[in-house]
Amino acid sequence: MAQLWGGRFTKQTDKLVYNFNASISFDQKFYRQDIRGSLAHVAMLAKQGILTEEEKNQITDGLNGILADVENGTLEITDEYEDIHSFVEANLIDRIGDVGKKLHTGRSRNDQVALDMKLYVRDEIDELDELEKKLLLVIQRIMEENTETYMPGFTHLQKAQPVTVAHHFGAYFEMFRRDRERLADIRKRMNTCPLGSGALAGTTYPLDRAYTAELLDFDRPTANSMDSVSDRDYVIELLSALSTTQMHLSRFSEEICIWNSNEYRFVELDDAYSTGSSIMPQKKNPDIAELVRGKTGRVYGALMQMLTSMKGLPLAYNKDMQEDKELTFDAIDTVKGCLALFTGMIDTMKFRSEVMEASSKNGFTNATDAADYLVMKGVPFRDAHGIIGRMVLACIDKDCALDDLTLEEFKSFSDAFEEDIYEAISMKTCVEKRNTKGAPGPVAMAEELAENKRYLEEN
Question: Do residues 370 and 287 make contact, with C-beta atoms less than 8 angstroms apart?
């Protein structure tokens, strides 16, 4: 059992206690970040005259050798070590001797693990951002290709007014754009370096914390050493942001499941993103959408675990904070997988435009436009609303759409109807005359697509 803290103890730690306390099974994901932090720390110690140049070079070469051997598989990270920090330090001492024992000068595992977690989260935010941008690029492409693909818009899962696929997908563009902005905001706020804070009260060594922060691409060192080692706000913020992203993915997945159903048939999912049934040969199931929807609770759970772990902790570091890792790692990996698979699924998805347009007509999504038509002919809106309501009821009895009524039938409800009613309530007209900012009409949609393109090019 490789430990860094045995001097004060006269007995070996109970094996069960050791295993319960150890974190190597999950914090080994940190090995790159841990070694990067140690390289910066050693460079700073040498700059400050705490280590000689020769000592710095020996330790640097040893750390780089450990990194290379882990990367190429010749050095295995095993549970012989308590955590990733002891793995690196013990192997360094084995390789370069007593000079390796100077690596930890002016540093605690508390500020070391705080640094590793920040470096890891920062790296993962960058990867998440790239995945979200890829999703936005696919959504933008679908929008550009479907500005005239008419479909029903819904409220309460009831057909409401006609929109386009471009307009519908544009709503999700806004959601995922906000998700990217949240990640950028978290990254900016968390970009302060805790290294040099020690266990909680700094150190008597003349460390240059600003130099270490610069080497590690942080904006500045953290301001308070107690906060430095006990802060996990950025983890909670990230898990909250990931929960929001996953919620957006889940909403979108729910719609795709509905659109893919036999009753709707709005979309055709690619075979590569569908599965069949072990007993029913006709089935083509939207398993990716369902799994994305299902994994949302898993990410929510990580957020609740982290909030609960932190809620009663006094300053400064407490071992409870070791629980910041496993579920956070899992949540990050879950969202990354969901983003990648969801992007591939919608990128290969086909739209049944005729079915979608027919559904708009049969769902009376042009009823509001029919009422607006009467208003333009001088009928008070409240009267127009009642007239169209009675017409819809009659169409339901006849099992037809408003568009299917003859002009004579229209006039039986109001003399204000003329031949131009058919053009006024066509799906094309209903959409094209809605050009207020953010609406589905061609002028408004052109502005939205142009703004989306500018955003994607600049970010």
Answer: no
CB atoms within 10 A of CB 149: 21
Of the residues 156, 243, 250, 359, only one is catalytic, namely 156
Q: Where are the alpha helices (DSSP H) in 164-208?
A: 165-190
φ, ψ for residue 163, nearest 5 deg: -135, -165
- Angle of helix 381-398 versus helix 367-376 axis, rounded to 10: 140
In this predicted model, what pLDDT tens digit does every residue of 183-211 receive, in sequence order?
A: 999 999 999 999 999 999 999 999 999 99
End-to-end CA distance of the chain: 48
In whole angstroms, give the CA distance from residue 373 to residue 401: 17
2, β-bridge pairs? 81
Provide the percentage of residues in the chain whose pLDDT is more than 70: 94
Residue type, 382: R
Q: Does the active-site annotation cover 156?
A: yes
**Using one digit for the tens of pLDDT, what is the confidence trace for 335-355?**
999 999 999 999 999 999 999
φ, ψ at 193 (rounded to 5°) = -95, 120
Among 25, 85, 261, 277, the one annotated catalytic: 277
167 is catalytic: no
Cis before 367? omega within 30:
no
